[in-house]
Amino acid sequence: MSTQEQTAPAPEGNPLAPDLATGPVHSEPVAAPSENVGEEATAGATAAAAAGIAAATESAVAGDVSTDPAAAAEKKIVLHHLDDSRSQRVLWLLEELGVPYEIKYYKRLPSKTAPPELKKIHPLGKSPIITDGPITLAESGAIVEYLIAKYGKGRFVPTEEGWVDNLYYNHYSEGTIQPILVMGLIFTLIPQRSPFLIRPITLAICKNVLNVLVDPQVKANAAMIEAHLAKSPSGWFAGGPEPTSADFLMSFACETLIARGGNSAGEKTKAFVSMVHGRDAYKRGLEKGGSYAYA
Ligand SMILES: N[C@@H](CCC(=O)N[C@@H](CS)C(=O)NCC(=O)O)C(=O)O
C-alpha cells in the first residue's frame, strides 16, 4: 500500500470513490498544526484512504499485499482467524460494520504458535489477516483502519476533539503495550518450558526479569490507560459517543491486563472492557470466533 502515490486520483468507476473521497488529497507538506487539525487531518486521511484503497482495489500491489485471484472473484471479506488471539477484535469490528464476511479458522499448535497454513496467506503467518477481493492485509492496526475507511460509512470515526487520542492509541496498542505484555508472557513461559533440572534457575532469572523489566512497565502503562479513560466522557478512548479504531485495537490489551490479574487493570479499564463485552456485535463475534480466553 505504501507504494501508492497519495496524489493519485481514485480510479473512475470505483465504488469506493463516492463514499470516501471527501476532498482533494493533500499533495503539499502538512502545515503547522492549526486549531482544527483534527478536522483537516481527518479529511486528508480519509481522502488519502480513498485513493489508496481505490488504487489497491484496482491493481496488484507490491510488498505485503498480495493478490489471490479466487478471492478476488468471490469479492467477500475473509478473516483468517486464530483461536485465543487478537484477531477477535477484528471479528468484533466486522460484526459492528455488518458487512458480509467469512471466517477461516486456524488452530494454535501445542507450542501455541500459529499453524503453518497461515504462512500461505501472508509471509509472517500471524493472525489477524484479512483478504478482501485482491487485497491481502495483515497487522491489526492496518486492518481496523482499512475496514473502517472502506466500510464504516462514517461510523467509528473520532470527533475532531478525539482525533489525536484516537491516533495515539491506534499506534500505542501494537507499538508499546502489546510488546510489553508479550514479553511478560514469554518470561512466564520460559520456566514452564525449561528442562526439569534447570527449572529452578530459569525460574529465578525470569522472576528477576519480570520484577525489574516487565512489571513496572505494565504498571505504568496500566496507570496511563486508567487516567486516560477516567477523562473520557463516554468511556471510549477517543471520548466520543461511539467506539473508534482505538477502541477496537485497545480492547485486546485491556482484556489482557484484566486476565493478568493482580490489580493490573484499574476500574475504568474494567468498565471499558465491560462496555465492549456488552455490545451485541462483540457477543456475536465471540460466538462465531471459537475459543477466546480473554472474555
Ligand atoms: N502486530 C501484529 C501481531 C500479530 C500476532 O502476533 N498475532 C498472534 C496472535 S495474538 C499470532 O499470530 N501468534 C501466533 C504465532 O506467532 O505463531 C498484529 O497486531 O496483527
Automatic annotation (TrEMBL):
Root EC class: transferase
Entry-linked InterPro entries: Glutathione-S-Trfase_C_sf (IPR036282), Glutathione_S-Trfase (IPR040079), Glutathione_S-Trfase_N (IPR004045), Thioredoxin-like_sf (IPR036249)
Family: Belongs to the GST superfamily.
Protein name: glutathione transferase
A matching Pfam family: GST_N
UniProt source species: Calocera cornea HHB12733
Superkingdom in the source lineage: Eukaryota
Reaction(s) catalysed by this chain's protein: RX + glutathione = an S-substituted glutathione + a halide anion + H(+)
Keywords assigned: Transferase
Entry's transmembrane regions: none
PROSITE patterns: GST_NTER
Classification via CDD domains: GST_N_GTT1_like
Listed EC numbers: 2.5.1.18
Positions of the GST N-terminal domain: 74-155
A GO CC term attached to the entry: cytoplasm
Disordered as annotated region, ranges: 1-43
